[in-house]
Design goal:
By secondary structure, the chain is mainly alpha-helical. It has a single domain (2-96), classed as Rossmann fold, CATH 3.40.50.2000. The protein is 55% helix and 7% strand. It is built from 5 helices and 3 strands, in the order E-H-E-H-E-H-H-H. The chain has a 3-stranded parallel β-sheet, with helices on both faces. Helix 1 (27-34) packs across helix 4 (78-95). It is flat, with a radius of gyration of 19 Å. The termini are far apart. 21% of the residues are buried.
C-alpha cells in the first residue's frame, strides 16, 4: 500500500481514556514510519515514545484545529514530508527492529532463568 505512493501521511489522533486505558506504541505508526511515510499523532500512551520532534508531528489530544493545521502543513510542504519520512524511517530502524527486540527478549529470559535456577534447586 505505501510502496505505490498513494499515502501522503498517516494520522493517528488518540486520546487517553484514563485509568490506564490508552494506546501502547502504535504498530500502525511503526509501519508507516518504516516505509518513510510522515505521521501526525497525539502524544498519548506510548505514541510519544515513538514519535519525537523531527520524526513526526505531535499535536495535543482533542484539539481538532491543531490536528487540521498539522495535516495542512504536511500537505503544503513536500520538503517537510520528505524530512519527516526519512527521519521517521531512521527512528524505526534504529529503535524498533524486530531482530533486536527478539535478541533482547532472549537475553531477558536467560537472565531470569539464571536468577530463578538457584531458587528452584533449593526448594
Amino acid at each position: 500500500m505505501y510502496e505505490d505512493g498513494a499515502v501522503t501521511a498517516v494520522i493517528l489522533a488518540s486520546i487517553d481514556l484514563g485509568n490506564g486505558l490508552h494506546e501502547g506504541v502504535p504498530v500502525a505508526l511503526i509501519e508507516a514510519m518504516s516505509d518513510g511515510i510522515p505521521v501526525v499523532a497525539t502524544p498519548t500512551g506510548g505514541t510519544a515514545e515513538l514519535v519525537r520532534p523531527g520524526n513526526g508531528l505531535l499535536v495535543p489530544p482533542a484539539e481538532p484545529a491543531a490536528l487540521a493545521d498539522a495535516v495542512q502543513t504536511l500537505l503544503e510542504d513536500a520538503g517537510l514530508r520528505q524530512q519527516l519520512g526519512e527521519s521517521g524511517r531512521q527512528r524505526v530502524f534504529e529503535n524498533y527492529d524486530i531482530v533486536g527486540f527478539a535478541a533482547q527478549l532472549i537475553r531477558e529470559f536467560e537472565t531470569a532463568r539464571q536468577i530463578a535456577t538457584p531458587v528452584l534447586q533449593c526448594a
